Amino acid sequence: MFRILLVEDDESQRTIMTAALRADGYEVLGAESAERALEILDGAKVDMAICDVMMPGMDGFELTHELRGAYRDLPIMIVTAKSEIADKEVGFHAGTDDYMVKPLDLSEFRLRVRALFRRAKIQAEKQVAVGGVIANAADHTVRYGAERISLPRKEFELLFMLMSYPDMILTRRQLMDEIWGVDCDTGERTVDVHIKRLREKLSMIEDFRIVTVCGVGYSVEVTHA
Q1: For 68-78, what is each residue's pLDDT tens digit?
Q2: Considering the entire predicted model, what is its pTM?
């Protein structure tokens, strides 16, 4: 059973989020402050941390920075009412892997937690598979039957991220932040250009297709199990 450290100073929010996580079979260790979270970590191993930002004492950004320094591979999600791009930049620079804005859609929250666990497993194994297509991060290649396709780094990272979340919509902003960095001044149209190149290079693949979600972003839609 995966164990999640949930750091949230609002007791009602913590109760609601804990119930949602337990419904998916996770063990939840609740903490009302960053200081209490660090105490828990002294005596317990966790598989993910979910942190609020606005807390008394050490805030969630500082806690995320501490956690990332001590646990390099720990999946971390920030959940906060702070929705400005500048706040998200602070969060990602601190080391978070995902960032959700309150009020939470609990269905999306649960999906993102599952996706974050999946992504952590993929990163550890350095490859992701969708149907018969395998993307290997060690050499930036895509294998499909007898085909072996080498991709430039950015194109590969874009495909790898989309394949890591099959049938989930990823916004252009999410893709830009993850692959080009939150402080990159390159326009979001760059994503469209790289998607066009990927579609051309992967045109023979029948197990999935890269779908455009108008005005939002892209998704890898599985067409063959």
Answers
A1: 999 888 999 99
A2: 0.66
At 111, list the tokens.
């999906």
Q: Exposed, middle or buried: residue 200 (CB in 10 Å: 0-12, 13-18, 19+)?
A: exposed
Per-residue pLDDT band for 31 (boundaries 50, 70, 90) equals very high
Residue 175 has pLDDT above 90, yes or no: no
Beta strand 3-7 pairing with 48-51: parallel
